[in-house]
Amino acid sequence: MNTEVAIIGAGPAGLLLSQLLNRAGVSTVVLERQTRAHVLARIRAGILEWSTVELLRAAGVDVRMEREGIPHEGCVLASGDTQLRIDFRALTGRQVMVYGQTEVTSDLYEAQDAMGTEVLHGVSDIEITDLDAARSVLHFTHEGARRRLSCLFVAGCDGFHGVSRRTIPADRRREFERVYPFGWLGVLSETPPVHHELIYSNAPRGFALASQRSETRSRYYVQVPLTDKAEDWSDEAFWDELRRRLPGEVAARLVTGPSIEKSIAPLRSFVSEPMRWGNLFLAGDAAHIVPPTGAKGLNLAASDVHYLHRALIDAVRGDRAGIDSYSERALRRVWKAMRFSWATTTMMHRFEGEDSFAEAMRRATLDHLGASETAQKDFAENYTGLPF
Ligand code: APR
Ligand code: PHB
Questions:
Q1: I need a surface site. Which of 185, 283, 304, 308 has the fewest CB within 10 A?
Q2: Of 219, 296, 341, best ligand 2 pocket probe by most atoms within 8 Å of the beta carbon
Q3: Positive/negative CA dihedral, 187, 180, 302, 365
Q4: Strand partners, 177
């Protein structure tokens, strides 16, 4: 098999990159470990920065998003019964779009089907060789046979547990990590959202988030110890805890119902540098992980793809400047999103065993946000997405 760009991973990063390259006439083959159904069953975040919306438009996968997506011009930061609305539109002139990552991935799959792109599922034992030659080779097993894919470039879009990052020699990688001592227990329910915008709540009992997928489908989270198991939480226990962590007038209007999905996600900040090794380029979770507080995971995958698709289109046409600067340019924006995600996680969560000074710093940070339009503008600028 031959192609111009081999892509490992059919998540948002891999499929969006493939779609943008194909629209520019660059051939791709996507190799995915799981089945399509498995990929589409994943429940992930639901906030798109406007630059991600514009990239999806450029990829030609915006029709359903425009029809079903919900533009949001602000969000609420709650602390006890105090609620502070951050007005994105007034502070930055920008907004975000509420549209689930699952829907983005489904739209990308449909677009790739229409493009006739080869997306191979059930691929295993990928080995990447010849990264410093004119053409690289992916060796892999598919449908019981060992196969070979020759390509000009390899895009490692295979997430945190993928093979791409580990193909870069360990002594040539610089890794940065912060593992948080708690997780987020998330519930999806066919219930109307408790508020028309998201509410991030910093309560004495811990963090909670009231989010949504549509006018009839809600997504809620509560901070839990890492020792908790989703199956230990009944729906009733979840709703009771969520009510305790939302401002009183909000909790009073919470509509509850049976959970249609319930899971616990650990929180981690992670960056691996560089994002390039010869003909291999990392994008998305393969290179970095953010805690979900700042809603940056999907948007950072889109950010990398924004830089990488242009660099690869130029490189296939003979201009290598973009691929030579890709890692540095992508990482500059990654680190700023990493900082914002870490800061909001620290501001909004209680850490087991923290001292009174940490609690006082959290209160002062929230007080300053409430009193300073400059601080609110900084939050809004980061939350809606820094410029590419
Ligand atoms: N070979 C082939 N495919 C692989 C391999 C492998 N060795 N390892 C992982 N994959 C696949 C996974 O099955 C998954 O479908 O790569 C894909 C990676 O997709 P994501 O993990 O969704 O990562 P990314 O596309 O970068 O999107 C980042 O997804 O996980 C969320 O919170 C994250 O919102 C962020 C977004
Ligand atoms: C979600 O809707 O799943 C969501 C929204 C905002 C976040 C994290 C998750 O910051």
A1: 185
A2: 219
A3: positive
A4: 270
Beta bridge partners of 272: 175
Residues above pLDDT 70, as percent of the chain? 100
CB burial of 162-172 (b: ≥16 within 10 Å; e: otherwise) equals bbbbebbeeee
Work out the angle between the directed axes of helices 12-23 and 101-115 (0-180°, nearest 10): 40
293 Cβ closer than 6 Å to some ligand 2 atom: yes
Q: Which uninterrupted H or E stretch holds 75?
A: strand 74-79
Tell me how far the alpha carbon of residue 121 lies from the centroid of ligand 1, in angstroms: 13
Q: Is 100 in the pocket of ligand 2 (CB under 6 A)?
A: no
Model confidence, pTM = 0.97
Q: Average pLDDT in the 3-13 region?
A: 98
Question: How far is 317 from 313, CA to CA, in rounded Å?
Answer: 6
Structure tokens at 275: 């994002």
Give me the amino acid identity at 300: L
Report the chain's C-alpha Rg in angstroms: 21
DSSP for 109-160, written as a single string: HHHHHHHT-EEE-S-EEEEEE-TTSSSEEEEEEETTEEEEEEESEEEE---T
Residue 130 φ/ψ, nearest 5 degrees: 60, 40
Q: What DSSP character marks residue 129?
A: E
Binding site membership of 45 for ligand 2 (Cβ less than 6 Å): yes
- Domains defined along the chain, listed by start: 5-70+100-177+268-345 (3.50.50.60), 180-267+351-384 (3.30.9.10)
Length, in residues, of the chain: 388
86-98: per-residue pLDDT in tens? 999 999 999 999 9
The protein residue whose alpha carbon is closest to atom 29 in ligand 1 is 298
Model pLDDT, residue 225: 97
Residue closest to 365 by CA, chosen among 379, 353, 355 = 379
Query: What phi and psi values does residue 247 have, to the nearest 5 degrees?
Result: -55, 145
Residue 103 — φ and ψ, nearest 5°?
-70, -40
Residue pair 185/230 in contact by the 8 Å Cβ criterion? yes
Give 317's pLDDT tier (boundaries 50, 70, 90). very high
* CA distances to 139, 212, 297, 301, 378 from 12, in Å: 23, 20, 10, 7, 28
> Is residue 85 within 8 Å of 379, Cβ to Cβ?
no
- The token pair that represents 271 in the structure block: 């960056």
